[in-house]
Design goal:
Blueprint (H helix, E strand, L loop, with lengths): L2 H19 L6 E8 L15 E10 L23 H14 L3 E7 H6 L2 H19 L8 E6 L4 H17 L6 E4 L2 H4 L1 H19 L17 H9 L10
Parallel strand pairs: 1-4, 4-5
Antiparallel strand pairs: 1-2, 2-3
Helix pairs in contact: 2-7, 4-5, 4-8
Length: about 240
């Protein structure tokens, strides 16, 4: 073996070693779920308005669906007067541990004017774009969207179709699908489900008439503005979630 061949061989080995040290780009899942579909949860304060909450949660794609639940990641909390302070504190504790979420609210008045499936599609599109704007290091080409079934099969299909239309307008080619019982079987959707539930509980059963975590709440009426911001977004360095 000549000296030139030895140098070439060393360079090839060095390049292989360098590639092994470069981490694979992360893949992400955006999970979406709704809370208070049908507006059946009534605030204890009659002056508070009831709303449907749509929540989006971003998490790294771990390549698996099923997982063990965490403490206070179950449904059916007892919001009685005796247990209320402790329960709401647990809700806030959970939200602080899972900060990569955004949410929006759909008013009962809007639901009387427009089809609810259309409003939910708008909300998911709004939160999808807002998550990309908040975390620019997340690559849309390595992201997928999973939604829990929303109001039955027909309504869910309409939501999925409405979302597809919005994604096309923003030139995003993101895999997206509705999964039945995704709030039990898919990590990102399970988190979105719990977060939406706790946001609703804090607002409806707390003492403040304003929605909690207002820096996480995206105005439902800002979809048009958000689309423009997304299409004109600059490359800014933000910390990864």
């Amino acid at each position: 073996m000549t000296k030139k061949d030895k140098i070439k061989r060393r360079l090839i080995r060095a390049e292989k070693k360098r590639k092994k040290q470069i981490p694979e780009p992360k893949s992400w899942v955006f999970g979406f779920d709704e809370t208070n579909n049908g507006f059946h949860i009534k605030p204890k304060n009659p002056y508070f308005k009831t709303s449907l909450v749509v929540t989006g949660y971003a998490t790294e794609d771990l390549g698996r669906a099923n997982y063990g639940s965490e403490p206070y990641e179950r449904k059916g909390h007892n919001y009685t007067k005796r247990n209320l302070p402790k329960t709401l504190e647990k809700c806030r504790e959970y939200l602080s541990k899972h900060p990569t979420f955004l949410y929006t609210t759909i008013s009962k008045e809007n639901a009387k004017i427009y089809p609810l499936s259309r409003l939910k599609a708008d909300a998911i599109a709004l939160l999808t774009l807002s998550l990309f704007l908040k975390y620019p290091t997340i690559d849309p080409q390595r992201t997928k969207i999973i939604m829990d079934e929303m109001g039955g099969r027909k309504s869910s299909e309409e939501v999925d179709q409405g979302l597809e239309q919005w994604l096309k307008k923003t030139e995003l080619q993101i895999p997206h699908k509705i999964k039945r019982e995704a709030d039990e079987k898919t990590i990102a959707v399970r988190k979105a489900d719990r977060i939406g539930h706790y946001i609703t509980a804090i607002h409806h059963f707390g003492t403040n008439n304003k929605w909690p975590y207002r820096n996480k709440r995206i105005s439902f009426d800002s979809l048009g503005e958000t689309i423009i911001r997304f299409l004109e977004r600059d490359e800014i360095d933000y910390p990864e979630p």
